[in-house]
Amino acid sequence: MVITDLTMPDITGDKLSTELIKIRSDISIILWTGGNEIFSEEKAVSIGISIKAFLYKPILMKDLSQKYINYWKKWREKEV
């Protein structure tokens, strides 16, 4: 699992996600954004990446923890 920001100095989160999927097609990605960027699940799908969850800043640790827990529960049930 990779948790990445959409906006970073050298590469955007969507580009990083695309590159990671080339290396490992079954990788799970959680993407967070400040909300100023317009990025959606539909856009992710349109460029060929599968984002497992989106988080919006400011991120509370309990929200991040809950996304993580929810993902692993689904993974154990083989829904991811």
Question: What's the topology here?
Answer:
Elements: E1 2-5, H1 13-23, E2 29-33, H2 41-46, E3 51-56, H3 61-76
Parallel strand pairs: 1-2, 2-3
Described by strand count, sense and barrel closure, the largest sheet is: 3 strands, parallel
- The 3D shape can be described as globular
Q: How much helix is in the residues?
A: 40-55%
Rounded to the nearest angstrom, the radius of gyration is 12 Å
CATH level-four homologous superfamily name: Response regulator
Our count of helices gives: 3
DSSP E strands, number: 3
Q: What fraction of residues sit in β-strands?
A: 15-25%
> What is the overall pLDDT average?
80
Q: What are the secondary-structure elements, in order, as H or E?
A: EHEHEH
CATH class: Alpha Beta
Structural class: alpha/beta
**Total domains, how many?**
1
Top keywords for this entry?
alpha/beta, three-stranded parallel β-sheet, 3 strands, 80 residues, globular
Tell me what the structure shows.
By secondary structure, this protein is α/β, with parallel strands linked by helices. It has a single domain, classed as Response regulator (Rossmann fold), CATH 3.40.50.2300. It is globular. The protein has helices spanning 13-23, 41-46, 61-76; strands at 2-5, 29-33, 51-56. The model has no long low-confidence stretch (mean pLDDT 80). Helix 1 (13-23) links the parallel strand 1 (2-5) and strand 2 (29-33). 10% of the residues are buried. It has a 3-stranded parallel β-sheet, with helices on both faces.
